[in-house]
Amino acid sequence: MNNDMARNLLTVFLHDPPDKALDIRGHERRARRYLSIILDEDIGRQEAKSLAQLPDQLAAIIERVPMPTPGADYSRAIGPQEGGCFTINHPLSAAKRELNAGLVDENRIIDVLQNLLTKANTLEKRFLTLWRHLPDAVAKTFNDDWRHLPADTRLPDHTLWHHLDIATGISAALSKPTGGMAFLSFSIGPVQSFIAAARSLRDLWSGSFLLSWLAFQAMIPILETYGPTAFVFPSLRGNALLDLWLKKKQVDVPAPDQGAVTGLPNRFLALVPYGRDGETGQEMGKCCEQAVRDAWTCLAKKVRVFLHEKLGNAFPGWDERWSEQIATLPEISWIVVPERALSDAECASLVGENFNAAWPESAAIRAMAQALPAQDRPGYAQDQAGRWQAQIETVARVAEAARLCRPVPVIPPRAGGHPLKCTILGTFDQMGPADLGESADFWQKMTTFEKAGVRVREGERLCAISLVRRFAAPFLPDEILRADRFADTATLAARIWLDRANIKPDEFLNWNGQWLHGEQTPEEEVEQKKLRRRVAAAGKTANMPEPPSYYAILLADGDNMGDWLAGRKAPTLREVMHQTLVAYYDDLGNAGRAGLDARRPVGPGLHAAISAALHHFATIRVPDIVERAHGDLVYAGGDDVLVLVPVETALTCAIALREAFSEDTCMGSKASLSMGIAVVHYKEDLRAALDAARNAEKRAKAAGRNRLGLQIMRRSGEHAGSTMPWEFVGHLDALRQALVTESDRWAYRLRAEAPILDGLVRDAIKAEFCRLLARAEISPATRKTANALFDYAEASGEKPLAKTVAILAQSASFLARGHDR
Question: How far is CA 488 from the centre of its chain?
Answer without folding.
Answer: 25
